[in-house]
Amino acid sequence: MSITIRKALEIDAPALSRICLLTANAGSTAEALHDYGELPGLVYAVPYVKLPTTWGFVMVDDLRDNEVVGYILGSTDTRAFEAYAAEHWWPQLAEKYPPSLARKPADEQYMNLFRYMQTAPDACIDFSPAHMHINILPSYQKKGWGRKLVASAAVFMKSKNLRGVWLGFDPRNNSARLFYENLGFAHVDGAPDNNMGLIF
């Protein structure tokens, strides 16, 4: 296995969307849950290569024609990200995906989310303005690449004078919780149980 970590680019958006779908069901594939498989990625992955205040790194498999097999994405300023997305990202998706199109509950859930997008808990913003998402295809997990992605992100964020980063995860995904704990993440005081933060 020959893996390279590089900066995420806008041309990576389709690959990011695919990885998001294949891990969106508490770490397992959500393909069967969606008729519109692009929806999870439009929330949790694609904005991070299209909107301001964002950053990202991807894992590419050099032996599979540089296929993107994992990513870590985030924003250096979550409130600025939310404000920009509320004006320029979610409205166009709400128009494109009215809930009347949905035939599956998961699609309907995302389509409604475009209309009433959640914002980060104040406790998380107090911890750090920066947040992140990380996903790696199952066949590349448990090989140390997640730790390397987080390390790459930490170097970048420290260069931006950030002291830490936080994330949210599916509370059903206990493997993710253990992974984050092993990297030094801890529960963010005052935030919901599925929010964890890391001080650099």
TrEMBL record:
Listed CDD domains: NAT_SF (cd04301)
Source organism's superkingdom? Eukaryota
Q: Domain named N-acetyltransferase: which ranges?
A: 61-200
A molecular function (GO) held by this record is: acyltransferase activity, transferring groups other than amino-acyl groups
Which InterPro entries does UniProt cross-reference here? Answer: Acyl_CoA_acyltransferase, Glycosyl_Hydrolase_84, GNAT_dom
Checking SUPFAM superfamilies in the record gives:
Acyl-CoA N-acyltransferases (Nat)
Q: Which GO terms describe its biological process?
A: glycoprotein metabolic process
Which PANTHER family does this one have? O-GLCNACASE (PTHR13170), PROTEIN O-GLCNACASE (PTHR13170:SF16)
Can you say what this protein is called? N-acetyltransferase domain-containing protein
The protein's organism comes out as Lentinula aciculospora
